[in-house]
Amino acid sequence: MLFDSHAHFDDPQFDGDRDTVLKSLKNLGVGYVMNIGADLETSKAAVALANMYDFIYATVGVHPGDAGSMTDEVLEQLRTLALENPRVRAIGEIGLDYHYEGYDEKVQETCFRRQIALAKELDMPIVVHDRDSKGNAISILREEGVKNGVMHCFSGSAETAKELVKMGFMVSFTGVLTFKNARRAIEACGAVPLDRLMIETDCPYMAPEPHRGERNFSGYVGYVADKMAEIKGVSREEIAQITTENALRFYGIEK
To answer: Fewer CB near the terminus (10 Å): N or C of the chain?
Structure first.
């Protein structure tokens, strides 16, 4: 069974058929889903889903795109969600995102560091979002001494992937691996040891080939597994077993 280690089933794109989609996953070979929080409301929604379905777990956190919403009250509510709900297994997704104009580096950095501190306090791993941060995210992770984290939706260089592995991080790949222009991601995947790899959909975004442009869902995580197996020169069954065991270990979930 596969573990989709990063999904957003609380997204409005699933409002019309969420239950049907989720109930279809086991028949598609998906045994576990980690639903990721991106602000306070989606964190609450992630927890609610995890409490409704026995194969779904949750993270809570504020995405850098919403860093301006981080207040003392929000941080306290995230802490409470994590403490009171045993199905919450990480703080995330948190990090830096300088892709769009108008971002505030200082606000994002403060939000990132506060949530790293929360994860340390709760002894939880973190799920990191890093987009176009010019190396600042990794610098902050180093400064904060973070070793228990996953870099999600990785599409950076092989050199950066190796750097993350040395820091103790897991590296997670999406359907980007299947894209025709995915040379860097493929090289990076090849550079990551098997015991540090995770797979994800980041649904409803990032649908893999041959479904690129469609609404993504965890049933498509097998395409990522197939491509990863090809890159690593092992069978699909081995990749499924290895990446699932890696995610279970990372998130502290018993089979």
So the answer is: C
